[in-house]
Specification:
Elements lengths: L4 H29 L1 H4 L3 H8 L3 H6 L11 H10 L2 H23 L3 H5 L5 H33 L6 H29 L2 H21 L7 H4 L3 H6 L3 H4 L3 H24 L5
Helix pairs in contact: 1-8, 6-8, 6-9, 6-10, 8-9, 8-14, 9-10, 9-14
Length: about 270
């Protein structure tokens, strides 16, 4: 098992993955079950329209009236913050544990003593993270579909898949960033802290730019912009934005490979 980093990582995360899957699925279904109380609720619409636009922007709501629609409701209640946040915590946890966690636990020497190159450790760790995020993405799509069907929420399966893929790519980006920082430094706390800070700043810039004009030039520097600005729940998956994530993730994997191969590890 130790000679195969991919299998080792997936095996070690299988129990926590199960609880993550159950928890996320339950949260999604509960959120969707509240939709009938929002749909065609004029009082709720008036309340949203009376709120400051900056507050609505932080919640991922750019149009109060759109919140009454299936896509707008899912965007505002799930895909603007809550679901990406959960996916980010999941991905960053895997990324920081992959190399930096092994190093701080003093088990990296045992791993490297097997016939496996350092580049393979990085690539298989990334592959395991990709597989786990994809598995959680499948659970999310199924939960969205079941929830939407149960309350007669009219939204296509393709749009649910598009929104989930966008959020999953966002999570994979930050998980890979955490992996690269861990590979470069060997410090799990630094990797987690720096990645989380970048995520928080990125979310604030992307969200507030919808209401604060002077932030608009910086909006395209935020990964959240490429996950949400094209409204995948309404318009489908934006291939251009997805390509930005793919290129950025590939570059981070390359950085992780190069820095880990050149660095002396703590044993």
């Amino acid at each position: 098992m130790l000679s195969n980093v991919f299998s080792k990582t997936v095996y070690e995360r299988q129990r926590s993955f199960m609880w993550w899957a159950l928890g996320v699925a339950a949260m999604i279904i509960v959120m969707i079950l509240f939709y009938p109380t929002i749909r065609d609720n004029d009082d709720m619409l008036k309340l949203l329209e009376g709120m400051p636009k900056e507050m609505l922007a932080l919640a991922g709501i750019t149009d109060a009236a759109a919140m009454m629609t299936p896509a707008g409701y899912l965007q505002g209640r799930l895909f603007s913050l809550l679901l990406p946040l959960l996916l980010l915590v999941f991905a960053i946890g895997i990324g920081t544990r992959a190399i930096a966690g092994e190093e701080e636990a003093r088990t990296i020497d045992m791993l490297l003593s097997h016939p496996v190159r350092r580049s393979q450790v990085v690539l298989q760790s990334f592959g395991a993270m990709l597989a786990l995020i994809a598995g959680l993405g499948v659970v999310i799509v199924l939960a969205l579909f079941v929830g939407a069907f149960s309350v007669d929420m009219t939204i296509g399966l393709d749009k649910l898949v598009a929104g989930t893929v966008s959020s999953s790519l966002l999570a994979l980006f930050f998980g890979t960033l955490a992996l690269a920082l861990g590979a470069a430094t060997g410090k799990r706390g630094l990797s987690m802290g720096l990645t989380s800070t970048i995520a928080i700043v990125g979310y604030l810039v992307s969200s507030l730019a919808e209401a604060v004009d002077w932030l608009k030039p910086a909006q395209k520097l935020s990964p959240f912009y490429y996950a949400n600005s094209s409204s995948p729940l309404t318009n489908g998956l934006d291939l251009g934005h997805s390509l930005v994530f793919v290129v950025a993730i590939a570059l981070l994997v390359a950085v992780a490979v190069v820095t880990f191969e050149r660095r002396d590890v703590a044993v």
